[in-house]
Amino acid sequence: MSVKDCLNEEGNVSQSEARILGRCYDTLRSIYYAQTQYDKAINMTLQAQKYFKQSENQWAQANSMRWLGNIYFGQSRYKEASDMISEAQQLCQQIGDKLGIAECLQRLADIYLMQGKIDKAINMISDAQKQFQTFGNQMRAAECLLSLGEIYRKQKKYDEATEMIMRA
């Protein structure tokens, strides 16, 4: 079954067809996103989510939710971004995707920073840093420490900023 046929059809598809269709829509999302055609990228992501859910591929479903949240974030649609990333984080927790959980925490921190919710952002980045540290992703943990250092520097908390940057 081709993606083109499915664009105009709402019929039931098998689990294996749903898996393939989800991947096709996800690839289309990346093409539209790269071309800054965000409305089309959002539509493709929503379609991918539908098929990933139908195929019971929870990891891909969570990943598409994160992508949708990232697109909303890039459009300054922070409420929608936060909702989608939070939902992705919950799904990542259900399936035990530690990297996904940490990435969601990191993006939620970005959202909170843009909304001026500095204390929440610091908590999220700290949690993400601990997650990355726990499963040995030192580079991503260092990125979090750097982010914390930059936040503290902007707050003129130079001792804390220095500590975070030195740890990074």
Automatic annotation (TrEMBL):
InterPro entries: TPR-like_helical_dom_sf (IPR011990), TPR_rpt (IPR019734). Pfam families: TPR_10, TPR_12. Keywords: Repeat, TPR repeat. The keyword Repeat applies. PANTHER family: NEPHROCYSTIN-3 (PTHR45641:SF19), TETRATRICOPEPTIDE REPEAT PROTEIN (AFU_ORTHOLOGUE AFUA_6G03870) (PTHR45641). This is TPR-like protein. It comes from Dendrothele bispora (strain CBS 962.96).
